[in-house]
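seq:
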Amino acid sequence: MTERRVGIFLCHCGSNIAGVIDIPRLMDTVKRIDGVVHVEDYKYVCSRPGQQIINDRIKEKRLDRVVIGSCSPRMHEVTFRQTMRDSGLNPFLLEIANLREQCSWIHQNDPKAATEKAIDLIRMAVARVKLLEPLQEPVVEVKKASLIIGAGIAGISAALDLANAGFKVYLVEKEPSIGGKMSRWDKTFPTLDCSSCILTPRMAEVGAHPNIELFTMAQVEKVDGFVGNFEVTVRQKPRYVDVKKCTSCGDCSKVCPVDVPAEFDANLSYRRAVYIPFAQAVPSSYLIDMKNCLGVDVIRCGKCKEKCEPGAINYEDHEKIIKLQVGTIIVATGFEVFDASQKEEYGYGEFLNVVNLAEVERMLSSAGPTQGHVVRPSDLQEPKRVVYIQCVGSRDERTNKYCSRVCCMTAIKQARMIRDKLGAEVFLFYIDLRTFGKGYEEFYESTASAGVTFIRGRVGEILQDDETKSLIVRGEDTLLGKPMQFDNVDLVVLSTGVVPPPSTKDIAHVLNLSQSPDGFLLEAHPKLRPVDSFNDGIFVAGMAQGPKDIPDTVAQAKAASSGAMALMGKGKITVEPYFSVVDEDKCSGCRICVAVCPYNAVTITKEGRAHVNPAMCKGCGTCTSSCPSSAIVSQHYTDGQISSMIEEYLSVH
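struct:
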């Protein structure tokens, strides 16, 4: 093997690494490794001066391989690759030893152990880097069209940004109308602006935009292909009403004899079997709920079709399978409200006057079931005493450990509105108030000044007076250190947290996306790539990625659309060369690799040999480890490279 000239660059990472690891000892040890011709340390190797040092030493010392001892490769591998390019070296002749997360942080109380481990990692990195080969990044064409899954405020914002930039957008929404949860909310905090006034003009813009094709009552069923060239299968449910013919006159609904709970109004009101979700719905068209329809012929019913003058109703409507070809995908599938019945001590679903935030939002809305009046569900009377309970389904070991972020401000907003409208006594039990956004703290302070009483503590149980339906709330004030009991409570509002919708798991499976432990979709990097997924060309935005308020959701939607624009605007992109390659002389065509590949990247050629699509392969190594004839090799992570690291470690232990 040709003698390699390896350079090692050690980063102090401020005091993150150098505060624990003995850098002088590390340098003195690793400079003796065979093939190492230069060792140098610097406080911040990832900084511009640090990158320049690497660039200069590559040229001065004629280095042909580089090892960097720093933080996780997830942080700055792309940065150091570009430094390699700038110096004239192939960017894949680089190995990064993780000295921060794997040494100094995990062994911060044992500097000796951290230093010994750092020496081992550098030795293993040198052993591997000697065997690395130059790799070339494949180039693929990118189609100038984007698929957006979910049409809440995140999906709408991303769709308009892309469409206004001249790109074709396919917007897929599982509900009959776009708008998401924001369309059901009354006011937005902290300014108390009308939610619909903000949202509905953008909804109308989506419906009328020539670059946006909208598919409601639809779900993505299958996605094939790779970045720049995705082939998408969408299944669209029948609406039974022609969107183009329907004039939204409502005559069909007036004659419908069926009443069922209205989902849009949190089941606090009723709708007909033929209905429009809400007045500003997009598309502005009625639909038929066939599960509750009495029948679609004249003998059983058929009244809606008889009444429809434009002839928009079509009982023969059927499910459609739609094929789309796009270059990028944005997932904006939103959230669901936590099911408070899981917290049995609060009596949700058992006591009529225990409600959740979403139900109060519909009461507060002037277009809601109570025309803007907050009432007790038991007798429809205005409450005189209201208690809010925070963190229901959030920050809880038994349900969800994470903070849902929006519940505190939503509860404060509602409490303020109830106090102002009704003059009722309003008490709010909290663990910690999370007023993190612009103007949020000031809104909280003004709400407290307006007469809403904030109590730091948990509520232990809720009881009901069966005769009056009034509630008894028992809790604790942790600031005063004493138990509290509120009698004759008219309404208890549970500040229910947010959870991923059930469809998140299906979308993750279809798109090969990862989910974080909380069930939301996992981003590629929480700081540097917060809207990228691990799959090139697929982005996540809004509450699909995790709990956030409207401003952060819109900001993330813009980030996702910008990422999609950057890819589609180029027309061509390079793909990381971490893909597997097939030795056709060894391949027997057994198809095991095809069966085990999680990315559908392996196919069988006409000659009966395996073939790997470089753009789809993620280099996971599943096919490599499964091949009985060792015909598949993972580039950049060969058996020889990995074996050399193991042998190097064992040689000194």
